[in-house]
Write a structure and sequence with these properties.
Helices cover 89% and strands 1% of the residues. By secondary structure, the chain is mainly alpha-helical. It has a domain of 155 residues: Helix Hairpins (Orthogonal Bundle), CATH 1.10.287. The protein has a two-stranded antiparallel ribbon with strand order 1-2. The two termini are 98 Å apart. Keywords: Coiled coil.
């Protein structure tokens, strides 16, 4: 029963134990006092010599007064017992209400503490798991840093190898162009030799024609000489036959014969000249044959040099193709290393994101610990307040006890409000942590973009100096590498 109770009567005062100590009027003491008064009044009446009637009247009055006093005492005792019963019922109701409220609060706090202990245990387990994951992630991050440093070194070495390969390719292209120029020169020399051979063939044909004509003229001269000899023999026979005819005819015949001998001598001279011309033509034909042999030998040597130049050009082409293949292999390895570096950057971003999540979980665990500590402190303060209220209620009356119970209830409400405020603060902290996660994710994305730009710049970096590649296949290969670094796709046009 709450509220103020009725004021006690007949000297009732509540004791420290919450139970009222009753000062009742003892009936035996009251009856003893009345009998002593009656005896005194009778003795006084006897001493005074009064009549017995007056004594009886006095006794009756005394008995009436005594009966009235006893009735009044019994009524006061009944009222006091009713008040005590009402006070006991009020105390019992207050005690039951207090016990019920304390049991409910104890159950609620026990459930809250159990829930908080479970959450704390779960957070501790998560913290341990995240700690293990963080350790593993730290090791992986260290290994990734080492691999990234190694990848940077490999990229620098690969860039050097690419520059060397481009220089080797440029040298091979220069050798190929030189061999092609030499082959073109050899082809021009072969064409000139063939033109000279054709001209010498024409000259040889002319010399052969002249030799044939000289041989025909020599045959004619030989026929003329033979005819002249025949004529001479005939004339000698005629002269031998005509010696007998006379000296005049002989002289005339001799003169005629001398003339004819002069003609024959002239014919012999012409035949000798024709033989000399034929010998000159033969020498010219021999020289032409030697020239033809030299031209054929020069043609064979030129063909051999041409074949050698073609072999050198083929070897240069093979070297160039091998250099291109090696360059393509290095480009593929560079693409693989770039992909691995991008994957390492992605893994590092994931590790950083996991670290952020772990930090958020740690913050949440710290928040749970703070909540548990605050709950425990609140429970301790509430228990202290309840014990103080109980002590005050035990020391004071039912009204003070009711006020203490109300104060305890108000303290519990304040504790619940404080708990709600702490929960809302925890929610705000979690929301702030959740709001910080996108910023950290954006920072990680910016760092990843910066790493990708660095990788692209490393891939886009061209060799400088004398060994720089011309805008040919090397430029196409660089463009393909840049395209792969930008899009992650490789076309089939190069390599």
């Amino acid at each position: 029963m709450r509220g103020r109770t009725a004021p006690p009567r007949d000297g009732f005062r509540p004791a420290a134990g919450g139970r009222g100590r009753r000062r009742t009027v003892d009936s035996s003491s009251s009856s003893g006092s009345s009998s002593s008064e009656e005896a005194e009044s009778l003795a006084a009446a006897k001493l005074e010599g009064r009549r017995p009637g007056s004594a009886r009247a006095a006794v009756v009055r005394a008995a009436e007064e005594r009966g009235a006093a006893e009735a009044e005492g019994r009524a006061a005792a009944a009222a006091q017992m009713a008040v005590e019963h009402a006070v006991r019922e009020a105390h019992e109701a207050c005690r039951r209400e207090h016990e019920r409220s304390m049991a409910a609060m104890s159950q609620k706090h026990a459930a809250a503490l159990e829930r908080m202990r479970a959450e704390l245990q779960a957070l501790e387990e998560r913290a341990e798991e995240t700690g293990a994951a963080l350790g593993a992630a730290t090791k992986r991050a260290a290994s990734l840093d080492e691999r990234r440093a190694q990848a940077d070194g490999d990229a620098a070495a690969l860039h050097g190898r690419l520059c060397a390969a481009e220089e080797e390719r440029d040298a091979a292209v220069g050798a190929l162009s030189a061999s092609r120029a030499e082959a073109e020169g050899a082809a021009a020399a072969l064409a000139a030799a063939e033109s000279r051979s054709a001209e010498m063939r024409r000259e040889l044909c002319e010399l052969r024609a002249r030799r044939d004509s000289a041989e025909a003229e020599r045959d004619e001269l030989e026929c003329a000489v033979l005819r002249a000899r025949d004529i001479c023999e005939a004339k000698e026979a005629e002269a031998a036959e005509a010696r007998a005819r006379g000296e005049a005819a002989a002289a005339a015949a001799a003169v005629e014969t001398e003339a004819r001998l002069g003609a024959v001598h002239a014919a012999q001279l012409r035949a000798a000249a024709a033989e000399a011309a034929a010998e000159a033509e033969a020498r010219a034909s021999d020289e032409y044959g030697r020239a033809i042999g030299e031209a054929s030998r020069e043609r064979v040597a030129l063909r051999a040099r041409t074949a050698e130049a073609e072999e050198q050009a083929a070897a240069a082409e093979r070297r160039a193709s091998a250099a291109e293949w090696r360059l393509e292999e290095r480009m593929r390895s560079a693409e693989a290393e770039a992909a691995e570096a991008a994957a390492a950057a992605d893994r590092a971003a994931a590790v950083r994101q996991r670290e952020a999540v772990v930090a958020a979980l740690e913050a949440r665990a710290a928040l749970g610990t703070a909540l548990a500590a605050a709950e425990e402190a609140a429970a301790q303060r509430q228990a202290a307040a309840v014990s103080a209220a109980l002590e005050a209620a035990a020391a004071q009356a039912a009204a003070a006890q009711a006020r203490a119970v109300e104060a305890a209830l108000e303290a519990a409400a304040a504790a619940r409000r404080a708990e709600g405020e702490r929960v809302s603060a925890a929610g705000r902290a979690a929301a702030q942590a959740a709001a910080e996660l996108p910023e950290e994710r954006e920072a990680l994305a910016a760092e990843l973009a910066h790493m990708q730009i660095a990788i692209r710049n490393a891939v886009r970096r061209e060799p400088a100096g004398e060994g720089a590649a011309p805008p040919s296949r090397a430029a196409a290969v660089h463009a393909e590498a840049i395209k792969f670094a930008r899009t992650g796709r490789k076309s089939t046009s190069v390599g």
